[in-house]
Amino acid sequence: MEHLWTMFCGEPACSDSDGKPCNSTFWHLTHPSSCINQAMIICFDILLSIMLLFNMIQKSSSKTVGIPARFRHRSALQTASAVFNGCLGLVYLCFGIWILEEKLRKTQTLLPFNWWLLALFQGCTWLLVGLTVSLRGNRLLKTPLRLLSILALIFAVILCVLSIFAAILNEIVTVNIVLNVLSLPGAILLLLCAYKRYKHEDGEQDTNENGLYAPLNAEANGSAKVDYNAQVTPFSTAGFLSKFSFWWLNPLMRKGREKTLQEEDIPKLREAEKAESCYLLFLEQLNRQKQAKPSSQPSILKTIILCHWKEILVSGFFALVKILTVSSGPLLLNAFILVAEGKGSFKYEGYLLAISLFFAKSLESLSQRQWYFRSRLIGLKVRSLLTAAIYKKQLRLSNAARLMHSSGEITNYVTVDAYRIGEFPFWFHQTWTTSLQLCFALIILVRAVGLATIAALVVIILTVLCNTPLAKLQHRFQSKLMTAQDERLKASSEALISMKVLKLYAWESHFKKVIENLRAVEYKWLSAVQLRKAYNGFLFWSSPVLVSAATFGACYFLKIPLHASNVFTFVATLRLVQDPIRSIPDVIGIVIQANVALKRVVKFLEAPELQSANVRQKRHMENADLAVSIKSGGFSWEENSSKPTLRNITLEVTIGEKVAVCGEVGSGKSTLLAAILGEVPNVQGSIQVFGKIAYVSQTAWIQTGTIQDNILFGSAMDRQRYEETLEKCSLVKDLELMPYGDLTEIGERGVNLSGGQKQRIQLARALYQDADIYLLDDPFSAVDAHTATSLFNDYVMEALSGKAVLLVTHQVDFLPAFNSVLLMSDGEILQAAPYHQLLASSQEFQDLVDAHKETAGSGRVAEVNSSDKHGTSTREIKKSYVDKQFKISKGDQLIKQEERERGDIGFKPYIQYLNQDKGFLFFSISALSHLLFVGGQISQNSWMAASVDNPNVSPLKLIAVYLVIGFFSTLLLLCRSLSIVTLGIRSSKSLFSQLLNSLFRAPMSFYDSTPLGRILSRVSVDLSIVDLDVPFSLIFAVGATINAYSNLGVLAVVTWQVLFVSVPVIYAAICLQKYYFSTAKELMRINGTTKSLVANHLAESIAGAVTIRAFEEEERFFAKNLHLVDTNASPFFHSFAANEWLIQRLETLSATVLASAALCMVLLPPGTFSSGFIGMALSYGLSLNMSLVFSIQNQCTIANYIISVERLNQYMYIPSEAPEVIEENRPPSNWPAVGKVDICDLQIRYRPDTPFVLRGISCTFQGGHKIGIVGRTGSGKTTLISALFRLVEPAGGKITVDGIDICTIGLHDLRSRFGVIPQDPTLFNGTVRYNLDPLSQHTDQEIWKVLDKCQLREAVQEKEEGLDSLVVEDGSNWSMGQRQLFCLGRALLRRSRILVLDEATASIDNATDLILQKTIRTEFADCTVITVAHRIPTVMDCTMVLAISDGKLVEYDEPRKLMEREDSLFGQLVKEYWSHYQSAESH
C-alpha cells in the first residue's frame, strides 16, 4: 500500500518557507498541493463522474422530458456556461499534458502520478459535467441534475478556499491555483443553468394543468406574432458578433437537423436584399446617370457598381486583411525554425509565436468568411435586379425586338446569364488579391533566397503569358458554345412545345435527330472549352513545381546556401500562393463567362420598346362617348418598311357601338386590334383610345393556376358578378364536370381544357374586368354552333350592351346584329357600313356571304324558334354550382408538385453520373493520378527536409533529386486533367441521349401534367451544369480532400503528439459536416425547384405579353415575378451563408491543430525534431487551413452541382409509349389501302385513377366515306381522334383499320400512314419548304403544286426567297388562316388513305374554309375523311355523322336520316345553328 502511495505522491520533499520539513497534519489537510488533498480531489472527480453517468442512465430509461418548442433554443446563460466550463476543462487537460511532457523530458519517468493525473482528471470531469449540464440539462431528470450541480458547487468552493489559502501561505500564484479559483464561477453558472431551466418547465406545466385548451388558445392568439418574427431572416436583427460568427444561422441549422426542411421553414430575406429594393435602387441610379448625361446611353455595368460600391469596398477590405494575415504565415514559420534550432531572440518566443500563429489563422478565417459572404450577397442582389429588369423589359419589348430575342433566349437570359453575372462579384476581388498575394510572396522570397527570386518571377510571368492565348481561345470557344447552346435550346423548346403535333405527324425521330445534330456541334465546342480548361489547370497546378525547380537551380548556380529556414520558408510561401495561382484559370473563366453574359443581357435591355403610352388617353368631357378614334392611320409591324401593314385607316367607335371586322385570311383584321392596343407602331396619321380595354386573343392564353385565378385576373372577388360572368360565358356546365369546379388547377397553357373552354375562360376574364372597350379576336371559332349562338346573344348583345365592341369574326351569321361592319382587304378598310347596306353596295362582301352560304350547304331547315334553349333555369344552375363549391377538396390535381429528392441520398447521384459510359474507369485514373501527385510532392519535401542540413549530400544531388521527383509528378497531373475531360464529355453525351430519348418517347399524358418550364430548366440550366461544372468540381473535390488529409498526415507523422488534438478535431469536423449537409442539401434542392418557378412565370408572361399589356396588369405580374425571385433567393442566401457557417467553424478547428502542433514543437526539448522536419511540418500546417476550406468548399460545390444530375435523372426514366416500330408486325407498305376503320367497344381514360372519357363506343367507318363527328364542347370528340393516333392507349376495346388492330403495330408505322390537320395549326422555325416537308421526301415541284392547291402560292411568291422564305417561332409572321392552309399542304403532300381534321375549320374565315373544303373534296375524293366539326355546314355533306355526348355514342347514321328523327342530337345541333343563322339575318 505504501509503495502505491509513493508511486502516486513521490518522496515527501516538502519544506515550508523556513526550510523545515512540513509534515504536520495541518499542512497535509490544508495545502492544496499536499498528496492527501490531491487524492481527495481525484476521488471527488470520480464521484461527480459517477453521478453524471447515473443521471444519463436514468434519463434514457425513463421517458424523455417533453420540452416545449420555445425552450429548445439555448439561452445566453447556457451558452456562457458551456463556453466557460468547456474552456476551463480544456486548459486543465492541456496543463496535465504539459506536466507529463516536462516530467518525461527532465526525469524520463512518469512517477509520481499525482500532479499530471490530477490535472487530467480535473480536466475530463469539468469538461464532461460542464458541457452536459449546460447544453443537455433539459434532457436530464430534474432532481438528480440539481443534486449534481449542488455537489459540483460544494467541490468548487472547497477547491477555491484551499487554493487561496495556499497562495497566501506560499506567496506565489501558480497556474493550478488560478484554475482552481476559476472553477467556482463555473460551478455557479452550472447551478443557475440547472435551476433556470426547470423554473421554465414548472411554469409550463402549470399552464397545462390550468386547462386542457390553454396552449391551443395561446398558440392561436400568439401564432401570428410569432410567425411574423420567424418570417424574416435572423440576419436582419443579428448583432455585430452574431454576424461575424454566423451565429444567427443556428436556428435554421438546428431545424434542418431535426426535420427535412420545407419551403415554409426558410425565413424571408430582409428588405435590403429583396428584388424590389434592389431593382428600385438600380432604377434610381440609372435615372441619375441619364440626367447627368442625357445624350448617351447609361452604362448598365457602371450603374450596378454604383448601386453596390459600399458593399464592394467593405468586402474588398476583408479581402485585404485576409491577404495580409496569410502572408504573415511564412514569416512566423521562419522565426519558428530559428527557435527550434536554438537561435530564439528571447526566452518565451516559442510560446508567443504559437499564440500569434493561432490568432493570425483565426483572423484570416474571419476576414475571408466575411469577404466571401458579403461578395455572394452582392451577387445575389445583382442577380435579383437583373432578373427583375429582364422581366420588366420583356413586358415592354417592341415587335421588332421580339423577333430578335425569342422566348427561349429571354428565358436563357434569366436562367443562365443573370446567374453567371451574379456569380461574378464573388470572384471579383480574386482578380486583384491574387496579384497582391504574389507581390507579398515575392518580398518574402527575396528575404529567403535573395536573387534566386528572379528565377521564380520569370517562371510565374511565363506561366501567366502562356495562359493569355489560352484565355483568348477559351473566350472564343465559350461564346461559340453559348451560341450552340442557344440553338439547341431553341430547337428543344420548339419540339417540346409542339410535341403533340410531332407525334401526330410521326416526326419525333426527325426532330430528335435535328436536336442531336445541334448537340453534336455543341459537343465540339464543349470539348474545346473543357480541354482549354484542362490545359489551364495543368499549367497552374504544375507551376509551383516549375517555380521551385527554377529557384533551387538558381540557388545552386548563384551559390546561395540552402538551410532548413530559407528552404521551408520558400516552400511554405509557395504552398500558400499555389491555391490562388491555381484558381487563376477559374477566375479568368468566370470573368469571361460573366463578360459574355453581361453583353447579351445589356443588348437585350437596350432593345427598342413599345411606344404605346400615347395611344391610350384619359376621357374628356367633349369626347365623353368616344372610345376609339383613328384618323388616316398607317401602322407597320416592321420598322421603315415601304408598305405599312395597315394603310389609310379611318375609324371612330363610340361607347355602346358594336363593330364587326371581317375579311379574308391575312387582310389585317388582327393587326387592326393590335394597333388599337398600341402593339403596332403608328407610322402615319393619329390614333386615340379612351377608356379601359379588355382583350380576347385569337389563340387563347391561359395561365397556370386555378380557373378562378384566370377569370379574376388580379381583380377582387365579387361573388354575384363572378357567377353572372360564368353564366354569360356558358361555363357553368363545364365547371360542374370538373373535379374541383373553378378551383381546378389548369396545366401549363391550359393543357387540360378543350379549345372551346380555353376561349370561354378568356371571354369570362374580359367580361369580369368590366372595361369600356372590348376587342374580341375571333372568339367563337373554337366553340360549337350552339355555344357560339348563346355566347353571341348573352355575351356580346346582352352583357356588353353598353360597351364599345370590336369583334373580328369569320361567322357571317352574326354580322346583321352589328351597328357597323368593316370589310378589310390587304391592310385597308374597303368599306364600313351596316350589314344590309354593305351587302347591297360591296361585291367583295357579297362574295364573302355567298361563300358562307355555300359552306352552309343547301340543306335549309325549317325555321325553329330558339327561345326554348334555356332549358334549366339559371337559378337551378347557380344553386347546383354553389352547392358544389363547398365540396371542393384539394386532391389529385393534374399538375403535380415538382419532384425533388428528400433527405440524404448519399452517393446515389454520383454513382448515376459515373456509371455512364466507362465513367468509373476515367474517374479512377484521375483520382489515382492525383493521389500519386500528392505522394510525389510529399516525398519531394521529405527528401528536402531530411537532406538539406546533411553535409554528406551535395547541393547538386539535393536539387537534382528534388527536380526529378517534381517532373514526374507533373506528368501525373496531365494524365489527371485529360482523363477528367474525357469523363465529362462521355458522361454528358450518355446522359443527354438518355434524357432526349426519354422525353421524345414519353406519352402525351406526361406533357399534359408537366409544366414546360420544368422540362426546359432541365435541358438548359441543369444540363449546362452537368456539361461544364460537374466533371471538374468532382475531381477538385476529391483532389482537395486528398490534399487536406495529406497535410494533416504530414503534421501528425512529424509531431505525433498532435494526434491527441487532431483526432478529436477530425471527428468534430466530420460531425459538423454531417450536421451542415442535412440543412444544406435541402436548401439547394429547394433552390432548384423555386428556380424553375421563376422560369415558368417568365415563359408564361412572354407568351401572354399582349394580353397582360391590354389589361394593364404589368405591375401585378411584375410584383409576382419579384415575389418569385425572392422565394428563390432566400434558399440560395441561406445556403451560401450555411457554407460560410461551416467553413468558419472548421477553420477555427484547423487553427487549433496548427497551434497545438507549434506548441508541441516549443514544449519538447530542442533536438527532438530536426529543423528540416519542423519546417516541413509547419509549411504543410500553414496551408492546412486553406486546404481544409478548399476541400469542404469543393465538396459542397459538387454536392450542389450533383443535384443537377439528380434532376436530369428524374426525367430519364419516364415510362415510354409503345415501340415506334414492331419489326415482326409491320403493316404492308400500301396499308391502309381501303381506309375502313372499325371501332369496337372503345373505352378511354387519361390516367388510371380518372373516370372514362369515352365509354364503350362501337361503330364502323367504311373506306372512302366522309365521316363527321359532332357533339357539344367537352363531349370527347378530340379524345376519339387521340385514340385513333394512339396518343392515349385504349383502356378497353380496340380499333382496327383495314383489318389490322392498330394496337399491334408500331406507333411510327401507324401515325405516318394517316394524314392529319390538327386543332392548333403549328409552324416551326425554319423555311416554308421545311414546314411543309421536314423529312425532305418531296421535290420543289411537288411542293409548289401543293401550295397552288392550298391557295398559298401567291403569298409565298410575294416573299423574295420563295420556298426558302422565313417562318419565325410559332409561325407568327403568317396569319392564323395561312398557318391552317400550311397544315392542309402537309396533308396533301402525304396523300394518306385516311385523313383526320380536328376542328381545323375553327380559326379561319369562310372563304378559306371554302378553299379547304373544296380541296379536301377533290383531292381526297376516294379517301376516308374523318372530321371533328364545330360548324354544322362542315359536316352537312358527309356520308355519315357520328354524334357523341358525354363520351357515349348517341347516334351514327346519314345526316339526312338523322335530321328526320325527332330526338336526334345532330338534328338539335342543326336546328340551333340555323335558328341562330336566321336570327342573325333578321336583325
From TrEMBL:
The keyword ATP-binding applies. One of its GO terms (cellular component) is membrane. The keyword Glycoprotein does not apply. Residues 313-593, 920-1200 form the ABC transmembrane type-1 domain. Its main location: membrane. One of its GO terms (biological process) is transmembrane transport. One of its GO terms (molecular function) is ABC-type transporter activity. Its EC number is 7.6.2.2. It is found in: Membrane. SMART domains: AAA (SM00382). Gene3D superfamilies: ABC transporter type 1, transmembrane domain, P-loop containing nucleotide triphosphate hydrolases. Residues 621-851, 1237-1471 form the ABC transporter domain. InterPro entries: AAA+_ATPase, ABC1_TM_dom, ABC1_TM_sf, ABC_transporter-like_ATP-bd, ABC_transporter-like_CS, ABC_transporter_C-like, ABCC10-like_N, ABCC_6TM_D1. It is a multi-pass membrane protein. The chain crosses the membrane at residues 36-57, 77-100, 115-135, 147-169, 175-195, 312-338, 350-367, 438-465, 538-558, 920-939, 959-985, 1048-1072. Keywords: ATP-binding, Membrane, Nucleotide-binding, Repeat, Translocase, Transmembrane, Transmembrane helix, Transport. It catalyses: ATP + H2O + xenobioticSide 1 = ADP + phosphate + xenobioticSide 2. Belongs to the ABC transporter superfamily. ABCC family. Conjugate transporter (TC 3.A.1.208) subfamily. This is ABC-type xenobiotic transporter. It comes from Theobroma cacao.
